[in-house]
Amino acid sequence: MNEKKEVGEKAVDYVKEGMIVGLGTGSTVFYTISKLGKLVQQGFSIKGIPTSKQTEKLAIDVGIPLVSLNEIDHIDLAIDGADEVNRDLDLIKGGGGALLREKIIAKAAKTFIVVTDSHKNVDTLGTFPLPIEVVPFGYEMTIKYIRELGGNPKLREKDGNPFLTDNGNYIIDSSFQEIKHPNELEKNLNLIPGVVDNGLFIGLADAVITIIDKKLVTNVRRLI
User: Fold this and answer.
1) Residues noted as catalytic
2) What CA–CA distance (Å, rounded) separates 63 from 150?
3) Is 145 helix (H, G, I), strand (E, B) or coil?
4) Are residues 11 and 77 in contact, defined by beta-carbon separation less than 8 angstroms?
5) What is the three-class DSSP state of 198?
6) What is the DSSP letter of 68?
7) Among residues 46, 79, 78, which one has the least CA distance to residue 64?
8) pLDDT grade, residue 222 (50/70/90)?
9) Closest by alpha carbon to 151, among 95, 208, 199?
10) Phi, psi of 219 (to 5 degrees)
11) What global pTM score does this model have?
12) What are the structural domains, with CATH classification, of the chain?
């Protein structure tokens, strides 16, 4: 069973004709976007807002019409993946480096649905290193402050150079072991000068479509 394909395609059931849809980034939502593209080619009418340049390219390739946030006043539904999700449906995101745009779009959406395979389900967040987007200026000082909050921060690199987000920023990946108070950590990290945002998505997910005991499950926080 391809869990990513199963949950990614299931999310398409919640997309209705005429919706403005936030399109997430990653290997699971890839299947969501691919299936939406097939429906669009059959005459299904939606507009997409991508969370990354990677997703923008994929959406164009499969034929989904795109709009920018500056052109619309609402997003009906956003669908995205996660690196970890706990029982409260709180998330760690940002493994692909698109956390800032993902959070902007998730916050703007009337409904935010997360698609994950079974390996992403955890009791307590924190095994996956928390991505933190920071401005390049003074990033070493920013790392120092993250360490003072109990993290073990490392600059993300690609091909021997600092990884750059679509916004031209750096990513600091920081292990916190167990994050028992994610809401508090999210706020404290964002108070650090130089931090743009972090990959803790607290209280944003309305539902998580996942696999539990080899069965497709939709865990709901709010009506969808």
Assistant:
1) 102
2) 45
3) helix
4) no
5) strand
6) -
7) 46
8) confident
9) 199
10) -90, 125
11) 0.96
12) 3-121+202-219 (3.40.50.1360), 130-197 (3.30.70.260)
